[in-house]
Amino acid sequence: MSALAPDDMRRGWCPGTLRPMQTGDGWLVRLHPPRGALSPAQLGLIGELADRHGNGQIEISGRGNLQLRGVREETHPVLVEELFAAGLVDEAQGDGPHRLTLTSPLAGREASELLDAAALAERVEREGRGVAGLPAKFGVVVDGGGALALDAFAADLRLRAISPDQVAIGLPGGLWFGPVAPQAAPGVAATLLASFVVTAGERPGQIRRMRDLGPAELARLATSCRLEPMPAPAIRPEPEPVGVAAERSGRFAVLTGLPFGRSDAQMLGRLAALALRFAVDEIRLSPWRGLGFCGLSKPAAEALAAALASEGLVLSPRDPRLLVSACAGAPACERAAAPTLADAASLAQVLAPLLANGLTLHVSGCAKSCARPGAADLTLLGGEAGYDVILAGGTRDGPIAHLTLAELVRRLEPGQDIRARLDAAPHHRE
Ligand code: SF4
User: Fold this and answer.
1) In terms of residue numbers, what domain contains 34?
2) Is the pLDDT of residue 426 over 90?
């Protein structure tokens, strides 16, 4: 199967395995393995391929997709062949989403899940892929109603189990409809998606996502699909997306975060070797930018968690790195004006108390902002000898100061009020 050149990019387009995206460090190839699941051997192979065809840098996105960076044009066709041969390609053709659904890393396995969210997601995926004209970035969250709540992930459409035989249908703006039977939910989802395409077609170029419709239009969309409004499902406690978690089979999984959602090929190889050694039966990709190692006894899960922590993976829900995003930066990316990963690691320590209170930090090597499309409470944009400091915005917003890393660290010392300290910073380069 041939790939398209990356200059096929246009607004709203998403990269995949067959259609890579040009970035500052070469082509970015996004992988969508079937069910978001890998064997230990497949994980090891991905590390090897990242090294052989790219710059050895691997990311996991906020939708749980793996991305190989720095892939070379001349070896991309061979990479695609090897990925197909290993059963690692499962993306829809055409201009729609490559993968429509987002699930928890333990979908279908989680002890507290109310129904099998993996099976439900596969049916939503199958029926949803039949809807022509969906925008590429469209996403459906399929939430099994367990402890790994997906409420914080943005979605055009949300299917949430509220009992083993009831699924609530969520639309943007906190609108809920239904409930419907799990068997009916994929068909209802596909009908809603098709109705969205028709509505969007009436105002070309204006409606790209479900959230672009107002509450009254969304309600009309739902009622045209014979759905009744219902109260919002009960609020669940904040999920703990890393640590040892119970599976419904009586086995255990180790949920991890990759530091800043990144690994290099060597680390991926070591993780694959650990998964083999501990007889992990499946590795799941996590939208919390990490990996889940499944099917373990309790002692094996605890031993593997310790081994993964010593590899530098995030195992504690209080680890400040969970709230920090950083792009590949220098030296991996030639566009980068700063060593973002190293600097993000220093800043995560300095800002740990504020991160624990919910502050979000984004460190970017250039304005392209590969690692975070939207705003963060504090965005740092690499530039000449330091960073532009942007509060409550993204890399394209106006900075309030330009500071060296040392000055930033000094101003952000624990106990200081971040806004007061940075607002007081001069609006010129220090
Ligand atoms: S945001 Fe970072 S990784 Fe992306 S092109 Fe810029 S420097 Fe490179």
Assistant:
1) 6-94+241-317
2) no
69, 335, 363, 388: which to mutate for ligand 1, most atoms within 8 A of CB?
Answer: 335
Total count of residues recorded for the chain: 430
0.85 exceeded by the pTM?
Answer: yes
Distance 345 CA to ligand 1 centre (A): 17
Is 333 found in the same domain as 349?
yes
Residue 209's region, left for phi above 0, alpha for psi from -120 to 50, else beta, is: beta
Residue 160, pLDDT above cutoff 60: yes
* Residue at token pair 């109310």: 114
101, containing H or E segment = strand 101-102
Q: Which residues contact 404 (CB under 8 A, 6 or more apart)?
A: 385, 386, 387, 430
**pLDDT confidence bin for 358, thresholds 50/70/90:** confident
- Asked whether residue 72 falls in the same domain as residue 130, the answer is no
How is residue 270 written in tokens? 């070591």
* 411 contacts 430 by C-beta, under 8 angstroms: no
CA distance 286 to 283: 10
Q: Which of 224, 251, 277 is the last residue of a domain?
A: 224
- Please say if the pLDDT value at position 34 is more than 70: yes
CA 69 to ligand 1: nearest atom: 3
Query: Are 121 and 197 in the same domain?
Result: yes
Ligand 1 mutation pick, 327, 334, 387, max ligand atoms within 8 A of CB: 327
Question: How high is the pLDDT of residue 420?
Answer: 65
User: Pocket residues for ligand 1 (CB within 6 Å)?
Assistant: 23-25, 327-329, 333, 335-336, 364-366, 368-370
> For the segment 38-66, what is each residue's pLDDT rounded down to a tens digit?
999 999 999 999 999 999 999 998 889 99
Name 361's bridge partners.
Answer: 324, 378
d(CA 119, CA 127): 13
Buried b (16+ CB within 10 A) or exposed e, 386-407: bbbbbbebbbeeebbbbbebeb
Cα gap 270→290, rounded to integer Å: 15
